[in-house]
Sequence to fold (280 residues):
Amino acid sequence: MACHYNPAMPNESQHLPDPNRLSVLTASVLLAYALAQWVEQQSFSLELNLAGLLVELPLNLTATATLLAAGLTATGMDWLLRAHPRFVAINSWQHWLLPALTALVVGVPLYTFPTGPAWWLMFGLGGVLLLLVFIAEYIAVDATDLRYPAASAGLIALSYMLFFVLVTVLGITGARLIFIVPAVFLAAFLVGLRAINLRLYGRWEFAWAAGIGLVCVQVAAAMHYWPLLPIQYGLLVLGPLYALTGFSIGYQEQVPNPRLALEGGLGLAVFCIMGLLLSG
Fold:
């Protein structure tokens, strides 16, 4: 059963994850990244013919390690949460979403760019991001925690940033549209779903999240062949995600329609203007 916020409940509980479990989990995920980077590997490709479209799926340690890191992060998050005094096992899966997405997004640039100072910088930043996500998700287990509003706001902001990084990296690597579509939809769906859940204190809106994902996919597909910089591409796809997620939250909170339209339009306009200004 999801935990819903009750203003009458005392906001006195404050819990932090066990330092030993937290350090072991973070180190394990980072070790998976490092080992995959340094181990010698051979690359294979699986060619599929889908309705006349030739698709090559890379089969190597890099692709496998990315998925394993995400799985390790999700299971590790569950292990970390089990030490929380208000942990409910049946409801723990919602806290796996953002950590797993973080591991995927952190892994993409680490496995794409060569080893060097920039790689080590991304490696360190990735570790910090994972650490912050683990702590924030732990706090978010208890909606009566004094730090819940700050933790949920941080998780939502971080999820938007991860989505932007993912779309930008897809643009940098020149990924084919057939790979961009599922990646953008899944990421937008998860970000929208978790953001709505956090803002509405435990409510799940799968239909809204799916609609947000479909709109983001259409925008990403329409702009895929435009002569855009990767960072422009990321901003222009992030705009609809931000605006529609905010609109869905406001609609559920019964915010007046004029205010909803104004806030959503301003958010979309800001990202579009930023993207257009970068063209110069």
The chain has two domains: 15-35+54-142, 163-280. Residues 1-11 have pLDDT under 50 and may be disordered. The first strand starts at residue 44 and ends at 50.
